[in-house]
Amino acid sequence: MRTLAIIGSGPAGFYTAEAALKSFGDAVRIDIIDKLPTPYGLIRAGVAPDHLSIKAVSRRYDAVATDPRVRFLGHVCVGQDVSIAELTALYDDVVLAVGAPNDRPLGVPGDNLPGVLGSAAFVGWYNGHPDFAALAPPLQSEAVAIIGNGNVAIDCARILAKTVQELQDSDIVNHALDPLATSNVRRIHILGRRGPHQASFTLKEVGELGELDRATPIVHDADFPPKEADSSLETGQRRVVDVLRKFAAAGPDSSKPISIALDFFRRPLRVTGDGKVEAIEVMKTRLDADGRAVDTGETETIPVGLVISCIGYRTSSIEGVPFDESAGRFLNSDGVIAPGLWCVGWARRGPTGTIGTNRQDGFSLVERLAATPHAGGKEGRAGLDLLLANRNVKVAHFADWQRIDAAEVARARAGAPREKIVSIAEMRSVIGG
Ligand code: NAP
């Protein structure tokens, strides 16, 4: 029997479990451990609430979680309730699938002013992550700066720009929907330090900017290289650039009260304000021959009351696990951290790729795992249960999550799939203990 502990119940964790079930058949027992009582990681707390079709992948994870060879142990914090050394002593393999939940710091003067938020916090707030439920982002100002040219920047802009009606059927939490309904935000600046050819947007996300009820994209012709240069782009990026060129050619729709300006070639220099964000100063940039952003020396000040930094994420370090500080993830060689200790997904390769990339990652990790002989004879789940019981850790099992799920579905507003419970204490009271 092979015993496997997977830390993290997001896509990377569930795909690894699915692959291990396929590869080892009845000769495996898997415990999926999460620090929250709720499973699914980024699917629940990261994927935009209006992208419900992507969230539907959790049904596939349910089939894994309810397999008799698998257990879900929620509300267990590795590094606090149980150490990595204890887990590696109990299980043949321990896989860290903990993602990258922390914002990369913006690293400019003023980035600690109230009103500067990282995307982990802002996205966590509108998605009902317990850690960010009390965030209260300032939405009184008419202008917002969003830094970064990736899909997270687009998600944040779209959520700020949508009407209540457009969000009604999503699983956005009411504590975000209510303040968004009365928000004063009218000008959203998405600041990219490079140009349209270098943007990390994908087609669906960029296309949605042109389909909003009350918001219109603003893109400037002058930011594009000559049209012939598009032929050097790979197909996906060329399609994204095609959409951006269409936005530029059409110009903004003056009937829409909210603008989403794609301000390319602008790098944040500093955030300024007296006790709170009042403006962001940017350096205008151009590309050098290698496609890097270089300063032009010309600066610009954009008055804003909220800055959301969407420039990537870092994994949380765990005591006893070697960490690459500069990359912000575990030190590993193709998923191997140490004998019997592995990592997968964003914790392995950093915050890139789609949900599906983690499937490939999980399956290839299990191939390597299967090719690695194990001595066997470890205690596995019985040992963990004893240890957690001795420490009075109240594990939330999958049936407990199903109770939380049912309570969330029962209290959903009209049209929405659920109203998430955002306090751990309330989750515990639904579980009953
Ligand atoms: P991302 O795609 O890596 O984009 C990060 C952006 O931040 C880049 O434009 C980068 O510019 C910029 N940046 C980095 N450091 C900066 C700095 N110091 N100053 C200014 N700009 C800086 O990351 P993401 O948007 O966080 O998304 C993470 C992953 O999740 C991506 O793979 C994304 O596609 C995926 N995702 C997918 C969806 C979806 O499929 N619907 C939704 C959300 C996220 P440079 O290019 O110049 O480095």
What does this structure look like?
With 433 residues, the chain is an alpha/beta fold. The chain has 2 domains: 217 residues, NAD(P)-binding Rossmann-like Domain (Rossmann fold); 208 residues, FAD/NAD(P)-binding domain, CATH 3.50.50. Helix content is 33%, strand content 20%. The chain is built from 16 helices and 19 strands. The strands form 5 sheets. The chain has a 6-stranded mixed β-sheet with strand order 3-2-1-4-19-18, sandwiched between helices. It has a 6-stranded parallel β-sheet with strand order 6-14-7-8-10-9. Strands 11-12-13 form a 3-stranded antiparallel β-sheet, with no helix packed on it. α1 links the parallel β1 and β2. α1 packs across α4 and α1 runs parallel beside α13. The longest helix has 16 residues. The model has no long low-confidence stretch (mean pLDDT 97). NADP nicotinamide-adenine-dinucleotide phosphate binds next to α7 and β11.
